[in-house]
Amino acid sequence: MYQNVKEIELIKNALLNEKEGEKFYLLAAEAAKDESAKKAFMFLAEEEVKHGEWLYHIYRKLINEKQFSLDEIYEAEESSPQIFTEKTQYPESGSLDVSVFGIGVKMEKASIDYYKNAAQTTEIKELKKFYQRLVEWEMIHLNMLEKVYDGLKEEWWQKQGFSPA
After folding, report:
1. Which distant-in-sequence residues (6+ apart) come within 8 Å of 16 by Cβ?
2. Most buried residue, 26, 51, 68, 87, by CB count within 10 Å?
3. Helix extents (H) in 65-94
4. Any idea what DSSP says for residue 1?
């Protein structure tokens, strides 16, 4: 049985972060009026669930085994369903949409910071690699969200009469 409390706490906090992200994106999907925004939030909620499942798998391995491999996680990685593409018709910007995408951006940035710190903190080579992979995955989410957020924000500013004309 693995007894490194620091490593266990890193995983437990990561699990909580993913669960909070899942719940946020589910609420955002529920509130979204635009179907493409709803699909985007559902995709992100599913991603958070997947990350949580992987983290729980790692937690169980940490508790029960001294050495382990995470190869099965990398093999299970799927390609993006291209929810956020150039062809995606983004929602018409309202205050709620701008706020929700803005919060999503902040959540993804916080996740990236957490996983970068966890990668630097862990003493387990496999976990360092996994946390670095999570940083990469969260960066993809961040880039997607920022692109939509920036477009919505500009549209919202224009509707409010704040754009330079």
Report:
1. none
2. 51
3. 71-76
4. -
Max Cα-Cα span within the chain? 66
- Both tokens assigned to 46: 């599913």
135's tokens = 């940083």
Amino acid present at 26: L
Any idea which residue has 């955002």 for tokens?
A: 28
Measure the CA–CA gap between 8 and 82, rounded to whole angstroms.
34
Question: How many Cα atoms within 13 Å fall on the side-chain side of residue 76?
Answer: 10
Residue 77 burial (CB count, 10 A): 10
**CB under 8 Å to 127, separation ≥6 — which residues?**
7, 10, 58, 70, 118, 119
Tens-digit pLDDT profile for residues 10-66? 999 999 999 999 999 999 999 887 787 888 889 999 999 999 998 998 888 888 876
